[in-house]
Design goal:
By secondary structure, the chain is an alpha+beta fold. Helix content is 53%, strand content 21%. Among the domains are: 3-35 and 325-540 and 879-1027, Multidrug efflux transporter AcrB transmembrane domain (Multidrug efflux transporter AcrB transmembrane fold); 37-134, Alpha-Beta Plaits; 181-265 and 703-793, 2-Layer Sandwich (Multidrug efflux transporter AcrB TolC docking domain, DN and DC subdomains). The longest helix is centred in the last third of the chain and has 46 residues, at 988-1033.
Length: 1034
């Protein structure tokens, strides 16, 4: 029993199954997490080692180098980025694509190798973390603005932070503008010297006093007791009463005798303001398995409940709210899907009548609900990528239903009843439908093998696309025959015959096709010439990684000369805030300023000489001024403000992290040589029209006070070879402070810091007056055993794959020039610079490198898709030539796609490349069905005239399904392509590619395919005549 017959004979089972699919599919849809982007594991690992007081050259040599030496032999590492900074070493290790379990093994292996590194004694333990897309962008930022006393606001912020951390879906809370509570022991150096006490003695006294040590168990009678020695501080006063040691006269010297104890807060590293008002910001990232919308709702619920108990003068607001963008993109895609579905139903109604239209349309929700069930089972979320895959497949999943229904309808017109029509009509098209679905999946599914960041973000699209197609296949073969037999049992529509407009259309097509077949060689030659000439369209289409979404935000990123104080940075940033007040008020919701923090696409800095101003705009649909226009206004307002070394404007557009438009690595051994080459490169970039925001990541450097030991004098005063190390530690402790212990106040752990008092750490003279203790307890002034020199030095040394690197970056105005044209102009520039600066090498990065790598990868996968498609077609038709005829539709469709991008003004992007690949599988469908019907109506005994007649008849028979399948696919994508239900800069190019490509290919299928088949018949006929002549001659 075939599937169609089983379906027809078991209508109750079929209907119950359909109801079950609707029920479980609906439940799955409601339970699917809603996200902006699919959650992606990047296979990246961050390694951070804090080395207080160390210069960048020291962290490079003592932290970065040893780690790189240990880990570089680990297999499948694709890239190592590292930074030797002031007081820290940082590495980003990127691994190749691999499973999550394999990555966990690599993470464990990497930690084992890091454990082998011998770090300096004062360096802290390495922090090793992996990175996923949920870490890339906070789901929301909570802003606490206040006009009450700072200490009161800080206490409120501490309470809120605890409540936010306790939310189940939160992975981390990053706080800006909040100073943590600390206990400062500010030492008076004169008193230290008078008692001959060193820093180390104070720190040691605090550590041994502040203890809570278990002492084992003891049984007394029938009861067992835990013994614990309690010495933890109970109050700040107890810290001051800590005994350091006994004086020569027998008196106890306490900490309060040599220092002042202050219960205070750390010095603010970041100043935050909301609309010019001092604020504290909480950036919240969710756990990878948490639902974004649910987590954001919970955050808002906690904040709204918390705000009820705060005093006047404290206000709360939200920025970077991902729920707005998630709902927006989901609404855009949902609206376009619904509009597309309505257009599809209308098209089906016009061609097939209301019952058949309803039957075909029913396949859409059934296929989608099956897909939702599998998405729920496999853990996928409903995000921009998965929903677009459903929009893209919307018009395709009805194709097999249309072919089945149209063929069943044809049998009804012949006089068969509904049951016979359902069985015979379905059975006849099983083979071509299987091939059509197979080619669609074969074209698109290999894209799951796409590597790199793009592959991780985009591979969910072909998976959902293929899943929906398989679901539609199940619906067409198992559910649809039963429904057709039941629902058309008493229908009279088939008795009316074809509609008048379609009868005229068929007659016109038959007449035109005969004319085309008579001029088949002329037609094909003309098409080939058009194909060759149309390649000239390609350079006219711009190149871009992703189409841009308007996220209602942009940033002003500021950098100042190294050594600029936080106060000076803050003073100049206020000028930018004043300039922002001159902008139109209507489109701006909030302005958030962070001084001491910079969060850009390619770097995240907490330094005194950086700042950022985030403009949170009102939703795009409620404002007149576009984000880009407002950004240009701000650029004009601030162009004359002096002070910053770099002012960059960054529009937040969503999508995966791809870096700046232009990103170039200048690598070598010597920093001076690399820097000169980078400057030469920037001069060359300045000459290219449309390139702007040119900068590099090499800090300008600041003066260092270098301590150089006089070993002879040091030996005279009783110091050994470790003098420099001892002196460096002492200077860092006195000026930067050292953490001696922790003070527990309720559930709060507070650092206890020892440092010189403020009045004794203001100048170089204070450094020279520092006194250190030698091995026999004598104190000696630093000026007596060391000398100082002041020299400029870098604040960071960056490396890529163990080579010192300066990254030159820039953005481009895409209305003036495209990324690929910039890259072409730079090729000769690279060669000239490498000749001028021996030992320097230059490599491209940024968007173009990512685009090029992805393009090559997709190209390889596309070839694989074509091979698979050819194998499927060759198997079905048992022919080498017929699959080639079918594949000719692909290049012509590609030209239509390029014209579509040109007409719509969309760029050639990674997303549109997905469209080209999908198009290759879609456009062959109609040709498969047409040639399949031609083969069924032909035999070797036919005359030439009969061959032609079979071609024309097959074309006529397949005219309606070819037009319908094309129109429904176009109808499904039409709203997205033209933004009828809301525009999407990211997904519109893909829709345009398929829509215009399909328009061209449909005409080719109806006319070019018959011409190719006729020409193939001519060739076969000539070969037969040649064989006959050869046989006669013998």
């Amino acid at each position: 029993m075939n599937i169609a017959k089983f379906s027809v004979k078991n209508s109750v089972l079929v209907n119950m199954l359909m109801i079950g699919l609707f029920a479980f599919g609906g439940m799955s849809l409601l339970q699917l997490p809603r996200e902006l982007n699919p959650n992606v594991d990047f296979n990246w690992i961050f390694i951070t080692v804090v080395y207080p007081g160390a210069a960048p050259s020291e962290t490079e040599n003592l932290i970065v180098d040893p780690i790189e030496d240990e880990i570089h032999d680990i297999e499948k590492i694709s890239e190592i980025q590292s930074t030797g900074g002031e007081g820290f070493g940082f590495l980003l290790v990127k691994f190749e694509d691999m499973s999550r379990s394999e990555f966990r093994e690599k993470l464990s292996e990497l930690k084992t190798e890091i454990d082998k590194v011998v770090f300096p004694e004062d360096a802290e333990d390495p922090i090793v973390d992996d990175f996923s897309s949920s870490d890339f962008l906070p789901v929301i930022t909570v802003n606490l603005a206040f006009s009450i006393p700072e200490e009161n606001a800080f206490k409120i912020a501490d309470e809120l932070e605890e409540k936010l951390i306790d939310i189940p879906g939160i992975a981390q809370v990053q706080v800006s503008g909040l100073a943590k509570r600390e206990i400062w022991i500010e030492v008076d150096p004169a008193k230290l010297n008078s008692y001959h006490i060193s820093f180390d003695e104070i720190a040691f006294a605090l550590k041994i006093r502040n203890l809570n040590i278990p002492g084992g168990n003891i049984s007394i009678g029938k009861t067992e007791y835990l013994i614990r020695s309690i010495g933890e501080y109970q109050s700040v006063k107890e810290i001051g009463n800590t005994i350091i040691r006994k004086s020569p006269t027998g008196e106890f010297i306490k900490i309060k005798d040599v220092a002042t104890i202050n219960d205070t807060r750390e010095e603010l590293q970041i100043y935050s303001r909301l609309n010019g008002k001092q604020s504290i910001t909480f950036s919240l990232s969710k756990k990878s398995d948490a639902n974004s919308l649910d987590t954001i709702d919970e955050i808002k619920s906690v904040v709204n409940e918390f705000r009820k108990n705060v005093p006047d003068g404290v206000s709360f607001s939200y920025t970077m709210d991902n729920s707005i963008y998630i709902n927006r993109i989901l609404n855009v895609l949902r609206n376009n899907a619904l509009i597309g579905m309505l257009i599809i139903v209308l098209v089906l109604y016009i061609f097939l009548g209301k019952r058949n239209a309803l039957l075909a349309s029913l396949g859409i929700p059934i296929s989608f609900f099956i897909t939702f069930i599998f998405m729920k089972i496999t853990g996928y979320s409903l995000n921009g990528s998965t929903l677009f895959a459903l929009v893209m497949v919307l018009g395709i999943i009805v194709d097999d239903a249309i072919i089945v229904i149209e063929n069943c309808h044809r049998y009804r017109l012949k006089g068969y009843d509904s049951v016979e029509s359902a069985i015979l009509g379905t059975k006849e098209v099983v083979s071509p439908i299987l091939s059509s679905i197979g080619t669609n999946i074969a074209a698109f599914l290999p894209l799951i093998l796409l590597t790199g960041i793009m592959g991780k973000f985009m591979r969910i699209v072909p998976l959902v696309f293929s899943l929906a197609l398989l679901a539609s296949l199940f619906e067409a073969f198992f559910l649809l025959p039963s429904h057709y037999a039941d629902w058309t049992l008493k229908s009279k529509e088939h008795k009316k015959g074809d509609r008048k407009f379609f009868i005229r259309l068929k007659k016109g097509y038959r007449k035109l096709l005969f004319k085309v077949l008579r001029r088949r060689y002329y037609v094909i030659t003309t098409l080939v010439i058009i194909l060759v000439l149309s390649f000239g369209v390609i350079p006219l289409v711009g190149v871009e990684m992703f189409g841009e979404e308007d996220f209602d935000q942009f940033k002003v990123l500021l950098k100042f000369p190294e050594g600029t104080s936080l106060e000076e940075t803050n003073r100049i940033v206020k000028k930018f805030e004043e300039a922002a007040k001159e902008l139109p008020k209507e489109p701006i919701d909030h302005i958030i300023t962070n001084v001491g923090l910079l969060q850009a696409n390619e770097e995240w800095l907490i330094k005194k000489n950086v700042a950022q101003i985030l403009f949170q705009l009102k939703p795009e649909e409620t404002r007149i001024v576009a984000t880009k226009d407002l950004m240009k206004m701000m650029q004009t307002k601030v162009k004359n403000i002096s002070g910053p070394t770099s002012v960059e404007f960054e529009e937040i557009t969503g999508g995966p992290p791809v870096g700046k438009d232009v990103s170039i690595k200048v690598q070598g051994k010597y920093l001076a040589n690399i820097k000169n080459a980078a400057l030469a490169l920037q001069d060359s970039l300045e000459l290219i029209e449309g390139v702007h925001g040119i900068t590099d990541d090499f800090p300008s450097g600041k003066n260092e006070i270098r301590i150089i030991a006089n070993e002879e004098k040091a030996a005279l005063y009783g110091f050994n070879i470790q003098t420099v190390s001892i002196v460096s530690m002492f200077v860092r402790s006195a000026f930067g402070g050292i953490k001696a212990t922790e003070f527990r106040d309720a559930d709060e752990e507070i650092d206890v810091i020892i440092k010189y008092n403020t009045s004794n750490r203001q100048s170089l003279e204070d450094v020279l007056n520092l006194r250190v203790t030698n091995q026999i307890g004598q104190t000696v002034a630093l000026r007596d055993i060391v000398k100082f020199e002041i020299k400029p030095g870098p604040t960071e040394i960056k490396r890529f794959d163990q080579k010192r690197t300066i990254m030159v970056t820039a953005n481009i105005d895409k209305k003036i020039i495209t990324i690929d044209k910039v890259d072409n102009k730079l090729k000769s520039v690279f060669q000239n610079i490498e000749k001028r600066f021996p030992g320097v090498s230059i490599k491209t990065g940024g968007q173009f490198e990512e685009f090029t790598d992805t393009f090559k990868n997709i190209g390889s996968l596309f070839v694989l898709s074509l091979i698979i498609i050819f194998l499927i077609l060759g198997t079905q038709f048992n022919s080498y030539t017929q699959p080639l005829i079918i594949l000719t539709t692909i290049p012509f469709a590609m030209i239509g796609a390029m014209l579509g991008l040109l007409i719509s003004g969309n760029p050639f992007s990674i997303v549109s490349m997905f469209g080209f690949v999908a198009l290759a599988g879609i456009v062959v469908n109609d040709a498969i069905v047409m040639i399949s019907f031609m083969n069924n109506r032909r035999n070797k005994k036919m005359s030439a005239n009969q061959y032609w007649k079979s071609i024309v008849e097959s074309g006529q028979l397949r005219l309606r399904p070819i037009i319908l399948t094309s129109l429904t696919t176009i109808a499904g994508l039409l709203p997205m392509a033209f933004g009828i239900g809301g525009s999407s800069g990211m997904w519109a190019p893909l829709a345009n590619v398929i829509l215009f490509g399909l328009l061209i290919s449909t005409g080719l299928t109806l006319f070019a395919i018959p011409c190719f088949v006729a020409i193939l018949d001519d060739i076969k006929k000539s070969r037969r005549k040649a064989l006959v002549r050869q046989h006669i001659s013998h």
